[in-house]
Each structure stands twice: as structure tokens, then as C-alpha cells.
Amino acid sequence: MRRLFLALCLALALPVGHAQMRIDVSGVGATQYPIAIASFATDGRVPQDVANVVRGDLARSGAFRVIDPQATMSDTASINFPDIRSRGADSVLAGSVSRLADGRYDIRFRLSDAVRQSTIGGESLVVSEADLRYGGHRVADWVYEKITGEKGIFSTRIAFVSKQGNRFKLNVADWDGENVVSPLTSPEPIISPSWSPDGTRLAYVSFELKKPVVYVHTLASGQRKAVANFKGSNSAPAWSPDGRTLAVALTQDGLSQIYLINADGSGSPRRLTSSSGIDTEPVFAPDGKSLYFTSDRGGSPQIYRISLGGGDAARVTFGSSYNVSPRISPDGKTLAFLTRREGRFLVAVRDLAGGNETLLSEAGREESPSFAPNGRWVMYATQAGGRDSLVAVSIDGRVRQRMTSNAGDIREPTWGPFAK
């Protein structure tokens, strides 16, 4: 995170009912799949339009051209395929939502190939009333994977920090900014949120003790624990793939260096780097055998890689005199980072095998890149018009989503893992 590198440096909150997020989408994917999504049949009043959630998810992905067939179709209804084809769709999704005796809802859906006039597949899921929207996300995930061959990210969550006046909030939301809840609110800054691999906990840095301290927060129970409160600065937590270890930047022995600590706060920190410069912003490789970090040991901030088994750190970035905030794609093949070009801070991605780099942003005041769990999107914070907002951009740079809030500035995004 650029701010953290340059600076080097409470109670549980109720859901944010008044906060509204707005998403503006621009661009389309290189390939767009035309799909008709009918309104789902219901047996009465359903408080959430599930089909509309699916439409929104697939449309925002940029990979689909969503067509409304102007009809309600259940998953068992016969489909007028010539009519669907005349509307320009190659496939059609139909479904139903019915209320069960216990108050839960049964969502059933069927995806059909309008060209071959055959069924591709379908499923059913049962959700609570509060999870109807989540159910729509799960349907969209299923459709996305069936048609593109890649896992969808619509049922994933993001975490971010908002600031309004002198109050900071740690927030969790659906991938599209809906269903915002705030596990923590504080008069002191909150930075560097990081998801545990199982999506049940967040590590972050809070300044509530008048210094940076790393906490681990269990979302279901609201319990939180300070796991790094050593002498000096404690910052930049990053989870190991198995969820047992955190890499952190500590200044307990002088300059900021990278240490490994137990995620439950037990034991003593184990020092990983020893340099004459500032080492910070660690992130584990997906295989857990190495990590990437930012260091100015060579005279300017660059990204390095070091094996957890020992040995010297190897420099990874060379294209600019300032490269920071490394993030690794889930397959370990791509590095996302911030680079300074002509005085502008931009998000870039680098193919680690071939070395090719691509700039994904253009505003020039970007921070905190984070990969989606399928590796197809990068989310980051940016500033435009005096406001902090979040942007998600497809890995090829073709589709861009800007997320703003009416409840203040939003920053420090981190994308959660796939839903279990």
C-alpha cells in the first residue's frame, strides 16, 4: 500500500443501512455471450427479484450481453426457442422461486441452448429470506462457469475501509457493493485489511492504541485479537495459504523488516528478511513456499521475492524507479502492483514468466490492488474529483467498474476468497 510505504509507519457496528453504493460500468469483454434471462416464476410475493440479480451480475462482468425476453418462465416451462433466437440470444435461463413451509425459499433454474434447442443443465438451492440475493449470485456463478468455463466471482465478498468525517469503518460487502456491514468502527485509522483463505476472518491494522497494531477479527462472532503488538510499528498483514501464519512488517529491531507470526498470536515472531533498507508489504505466493514484498534496499522501492526456506531475495520489478504493493494472482502467474510513471501512480500487471507488463489504470492516484479469486479482475482504490472510490478492472483492461459511496470515501479494498 503506497500510503503505508511512504509513511511507514470500538465496538462492533451494526449493518450500514444508510450507506448506498453506486456502480458505473464501462467497456465490454473481447467475447460477449448473448443470453436471455427470463423473470423467475413465483408462488406469491418474493422480497427479492432473483432473476434481476443474475442479470446484473452477468451484465457487469462484461462477458455477457443480457437480453430480457419480456416473459416469466419457470424451470419446467417449455421454451419457445425460435422466439429466443429472434431476440438475438444463444442461450436462455429460466427459473422459479417458491416459499417453503419453514420460511426458506427454494430457487430452481434451468439453462438451455437456444441454438441446439437443448438443456445445458440446472440446479436448485434453498436459502433463507435474508440470503435471496446471495442465491441470485450463486445462480450467476453457475451460469458463468457453464458458459465461459471459468469460475464466477459473484458470490464472493470484498472488504474495504470507509472514512466519513473523523470516523473510520471496516466494511464487508457483496462483490457489487451491496449488503454492506461494518464489523468495526473507530475514531482512529484502519488500514491494510486482508482476508483469511477460508473467508471467515480479516486481519487488519488499527491505530486505536495510538500506534499501528495488527488484529485478527472473526466475522461470525465479532471476536478480535491483537496478534502483533510489538515495539514500534506492526503493519501489512498477509495470510499464508493454509491460514495458520501471517507475514507482517515489524520495526521492533530497527528498520521495517518482514517477520512471520502465528495467526492466533501465539509464539514469537520469526524474522525472514534482514536488509539495510525498508522491507514491507509482504504477500505469500499461492504455493506458500515464497513471498513477495516491497523494499528500497537497492535505493528505490522495488518488489522482491524470497523463499521461506532461506536464501537471498531476488528483485522482480525493473520497469520503473518506483514499484510497490505486490499482489499475486491465484494461479501464481501474474503480479499486480503499483508503479510510478511520469509522476502518476498506476496499477500494472506483470506476467512473471515472460516479463510483459500492462497498465490497467489511468487516473494516476491509485492504491491497494487486489485480485479476484478467479484471477480475472483486479480491484484497487483511486481518487478522482476529491473523492476516494474503488475500481474493478478486468485483467485485459477492457471492462471497468467504478464503485462510489454516499457515505464518504472508500479505500483499501481486498477481494475475498470463493464462497464455501
Q: How would you describe what is shown here?
A:
This protein has 420 residues and is mostly beta strands. It folds into 2 domains: 2-21 and 156-415, Neuraminidase (6 Propeller), CATH 2.120.10.30; 31-148, TolB, N-terminal domain (Rossmann fold). Helix content is 10%, strand content 46%. It has helices spanning 2-7, 50-60, 81-86, 132-148, and strands at residues 21-26, 33-37, 39-42, 64-67, 72-73, 91-99, 105-113, 118-127, 157-164, 167-174, 181-186, 190-195, 201-206, 213-218, 224-228, 234-239, 245-250, 257-262, 270-271, 279-284, 290-295, 302-307, 314-315, 323-328, 334-341, 344-351, 357-359, 367-371, 377-384, 387-394, 400-405, 409-415. Strands 2, 3, 4, 5, 6, 7 and 8 form a 7-stranded mixed sheet that branches. Strands 1-31-30-29-28 form a 5-stranded antiparallel sheet, with no helix packed on it. Helix 2 crosses helix 4. The two termini are 28 Å apart. The model is unreliable at 1-18 (pLDDT under 50).
